[in-house]
Design brief:
With 146 residues, the protein is α+β, with helices and mostly antiparallel strands. It has helices at residues 3-6, 9-17, 65-78, 83-99, 119-137, and strands spanning 30-36, 41-50, 53-62. The protein is globular. Bound molecules: zinc ion. Zinc ion (ZN) is lined by residues 36, 39, 41, 63-64, 66-67, 124.
Amino acid sequence: MDLFNDLYQQLIIDHNKNPRNYHPLANCTHRANGHNPLCGDEISIEFIEEEGIIKQIAFQGSGCAISIASSSLMTTSLEKKKIENAITIYEAFINLAKTGKTNRELGKLSVLAGVYKYPSRVKCATLAWHTFYGAVKQTIEKIKTE
Ligand code: ZN
């Protein structure tokens, strides 16, 4: 069985070739780096939180097609979401990657549902999400200059 036939090939390939929100984010309020040593994927996530809402989110890094596509899809789905809603989606996505069970909240993220059949790739798909969750906890202190 081919991994890419199981995943919705075109959307994954598109997000890998043309990742969305792939850039540094000046003035980010949260940042974290993630590393998946099994595959060599390295992803950093940055976002700007304003009044409990993810105003802007971006990522950078290098890795396999699954890790990059998952990061790209994640940024498009979390932008403009409340932090608490984003955490709900994070939990649903981790469950999706491990069990293949989808729900309405996941929307187009469901294209990664097939990954659960490939245990070695689950960490590729969830890296960006675990990193995002780490970033939620890592507030960047604003440096005040007076
Ligand atoms: Zn990978």
